[in-house]
Amino acid sequence: MKIKLLSLPAAAASVLGLALFAVTTVAQAPPPGPTGEHAHPPAPAPTNLKVLPKTLTGDQVHEIMHGWAKALGTQCDTCHQEDPVKKMPNGHPALNFADDSKKENETARQMVKMTIDINKNYTSVVDSSRSKDPQAKMVGCGTCHRGQVDPPAYVPPPDEHEHEHHEGAPPAGAPPTAPH
Question: What is the pTM of this model?
Answer without folding.
Answer: 0.63
